[in-house]
Amino acid sequence: MQNIPLLSLNDGYKIPAIGYGTYPLDNPQAETAVREALSCGYRLFDTAANYGNESGVGTGLLSFDVGRTDIFVTTKLRGRDQGYDSTMRAFDASLQRLKMSYIDLYLIHWPLPMKDLYVESWKALVQLQKDGRVRSIGVSNFLPEHLTRIIDATGVTPAVNQIEMHADFAQREALEVHKKLGILTEAWSPLGRGSVLENPVVGRVAQRHNRTPAQVLLRWVVQMGAVPLPKSAHPARMKANIEIFDFELSETDMNDLATIDGNHRTGADPATCTEE
Ligand SMILES: NC(=O)c1ccc[n+]([C@@H]2O[C@H](COP(=O)([O-])OP(=O)(O)OC[C@H]3O[C@@H](n4cnc5c(N)ncnc54)[C@H](OP(=O)(O)O)[C@@H]3O)[C@@H](O)[C@H]2O)c1
Question: Site Lowers pKa of active site Tyr: which residues (predicted)?
Answer without folding.
Answer: 76
